[in-house]
Amino acid sequence: MPLENIKKIMLVLSGKGGVGKSSVTTQLALTLSLQGHSVGVLDIDLTGPSIPRFFGIEEHKVRQAPGGWIPVPVHDKQNLPASASSHNGSSNGSTSNSATVEKDVGSLSCMSLGFILANRSDAVIWRGPKKTAMVRQFLTDVLWPPLDFLLVDTPPGTSDEHISLLETLLKSTSGPTAPPGQLAGAVVVTTPQAISISDVKKELNFCKKTGIRVLGVVENMAGFVCPNCSECTYVFSKGGGKVMADDFGVPFLGSVPIDPAFVMLIEEGVRPVYPKGTVVGGKVAIEKQSEEGSTTSAEKTSDGLLVDKYRDCSLAPLFDGIVGTLVEDIKSMV
Fold first, then answer.
1. In the chain, where the domains are located
2. Buried b vs exposed e over 15-45: b needs ≥16 C-beta within 10 Å?
């Protein structure tokens, strides 16, 4: 079966819609790739397949091959040069060592119903049995290359897609040919508000009842980073995700604010830029020129790989820590 090529499978779940599961999935995938892992992303949100848009590959189509579908590549394994932000140096004027930035990035590919629909604006009006069949087909007919990690972006709730997904995965990953601990567990996404927390608690109970290990909770939209002054304002309250994780005895992976520069990166492909003096990941970020001055080439250009431009996003260091924690936790399970 195609899943035999995959070392670890992680689910991204939430009982609430609109909390940013696809955004978190995208950044987990980009960060794993930057850490040198080969990554696949499977989008089973059948009525709202947004993964193609997040990775900027929505015009692509899957190819048929003997035995199944070939996923759409985002980028191949390669070596990236020093990120643009490293050339700005540190706040005291010293330059960073580009050798510490250059690294091999792992390959990244995606599969989504969005690649199969004739028109990306087509509505998917399916009853439960057809959704169930589609999820099973995604798990059995996608010819993934050898992967270190497969991330599964799920729809909100605990409905047909989730039940079909878990039934198929538990059966496939418990066979004699499956790698040990192949189904690593689930990352649960919430936002800080009480109304979101109450829905996401149902997802944690779902994981408990179905025997899926919760790898941790990510509190998304925990504040808004002003694009002018870089100050973070907690427009949706804060701390609810940490309290929920503690109540359920599961790890809390971190809080992720809303960064307009990341939105611009996804929507327009523009490399993130920040006000002068903003420090991102221990180095000065790409500076935004004043309105009177000329626009920097980094701000103006949309050339280059998504994974390369993401390195200059303020959220990249946060997800580097989150992914590092996840990978170490998964390694300790074996």
1. 2-221+235-260+307-333
2. bbeebbbbbbbbbbbbbbbbbebbbbbbbbb
- Fill in the DSSP letter of residue 228: T
Q: Does position 226 have pLDDT exceeding 60, yes or no?
A: yes
* Residue 334 to residue 323: CA distance in whole angstroms: 17
CA dist 90 and 285 (Å) reads 9
| Positions at the binding site | 15-22, 226, 229
Sequence-distant (6+) residues with CB within 8 A of 298 are 84, 271, 273, 286, 312
Listed in sequence order, the DSSP H helices in the chain are 21-34, 51-54, 128-141, 160-173, 194-210, 240-248, 260-268, 297-300, 306-310, 316-333
**Residue numbering of the annotated binding site for [4Fe-4S] cluster:** 226, 229
d(CA 244, CA 274): 33
Beta partners for 78? Answer: 105
- Nearest CA to 43 among 54, 59, 30, 56? 54
Greatest pairwise CA separation for the chain in angstroms: 65
Q: What angle do CA 303, 112, 115 make, to 5 degrees?
A: 70
Contact (CB, 8 A) for 15 and 191 = no
Instruction: Tell whether the model's pLDDT for residue 98 goes beyond 90.
Output: no
Instruction: Locate all alpha helices (DSSP H) within 35-144, ordered by sequence.
Output: 51-54, 128-141
pLDDT tens, residue by residue, 103-133: 789 999 999 999 998 777 788 888 888 999 9
| Architecture in CATH of 2-221+235-260+307-333 | 3-Layer(aba) Sandwich (3.40)
Sign, CA dihedral 51-167-187-196, equals positive
Residues that constitute the known binding site for ATP: 15-22
